[in-house]
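Table 4 source record.
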Amino acid sequence: MEVVEVGHYWDAVRAPKAIGERTLELLGKQGGAAIADYCTMYWLISPGSAYYWQSIRQVQVLTTTTAELTFMGMPPGHWRSGPGLHWRIPVGPNRYLTDTEQLRQALLLAAVVEFGSDEEADR
């Protein structure tokens, strides 16, 4: 495993596994590489591309645009099964960064399916 600073070549989006698995289904072949680590999933996105996002329940954007350095563990290419850190969808030709807008839409839908709408949460 290598620890890499987020923000130079990519930012990352972190979500709980339940939302992550549903998001992978929704993205299908449109998604980029995805990393899993026990109960968490990560996608790599273009640096700064999620700066405008409204918050999504239990989803966090990891970036250096916040004055703090952020680091993330990156599994070697051959780590393809868990339960620990591994590539859930390995990097490959045409599978690197996930389109930020497609990811946001898939995460929003997955969060609503998993947790219900925000209005239901406020009751």
